[in-house]
Amino acid sequence: MPWPSRKRDKGAVADKKEPDAKIAKTEEDASDKEEEEKSTKPPAGSSKSGWKNWKKTKESDSGGEESKIKYCHWLLKSEPESRLEKGVDVKFSIDDLKAQPNQTTFWDGVRNYQARNFLRAMKLGQQAFFYHSNCKEPGIVGIVKIVKEAYPDHTQFDQKDPHYDSSSRKENPKWSMVDVQFVRMTKRFIPLSEIKAHHLAHKADGGPLKNMMLFTRQRLSIQPLTQEEFDFVLSLEEEKPH
């Protein structure tokens, strides 16, 4: 494959606070918190109106009842801009995915245990947001679906790959990957700053993004989403950008 380790990580790289920032690709790196901190402050009142309108339509479906948290969608981070890691360019944008045979590829290179466990929890046909990370303006650009459930990530055994893990054994692999297929582009780019504006408002009024993992565990490259979180974020593509 032309991009042998293009996705994520040893944990996710935080998005750049400045265009020329260089950030180490480790889950524990404190600089990773910049993805949350870099977002601009929400415009006054920008979220609540959207949340109220969305809530009216959803309450008719749910009866307003709260249910146990259940994750059934995902957010997958990938870097759309060139960056060398051990001499290999880890760039992989949604356009690169679209250029693959059948617009399908494996999601390799995850080297964080929680992110790996999320990969292993993915089910055939589930949808995920494709999120451009570690770039000038991070955000959601499209939708993909899971077309093959978790199986061993071959890059862990490849000594030439940036994500080679000498401690992993073929009889008991540490790391997994899934196959994803392009579904469609979102109707517009949904930037991190806009999602954060809603998240902050929802923390105050109990909206669906109040506990979104993009902000509570922002360094993870593989993140689960509830149906409510997925639906609300997807509804943003219909709104004009602020």
UniProtKB/TrEMBL annotation:
Pfam family, one: EVE
Keywords: Nucleus, Phosphoprotein
Localization per Swiss-Prot or TrEMBL: Nucleus
InterPro entries named among the record's database cross-references: 5hmC_binding, EVE_domain, PUA-like_sf, THYN1-like_EVE
Disordered: annotated span: 1-64
SUPFAM superfamilies referenced in this protein's UniProt entry, alphabetically: PUA domain-like
Chloroplast found in the keyword field: no
Signal peptide region: none
Biased composition (Basic and acidic residues): 10-28
One CC-aspect GO term: nucleus
Main location: nucleus
Domain EVE: 73-235
Function summary: Specifically binds 5-hydroxymethylcytosine (5hmC), suggesting that it acts as a specific reader of 5hmC.
PANTHER family (alphabetical): THYMOCYTE NUCLEAR PROTEIN 1
Descriptive protein name: Thymocyte nuclear protein 1
Organism: Haliaeetus albicilla (White-tailed sea-eagle)
Taxonomic classification: Eukaryota, Metazoa, Chordata, Craniata, Vertebrata
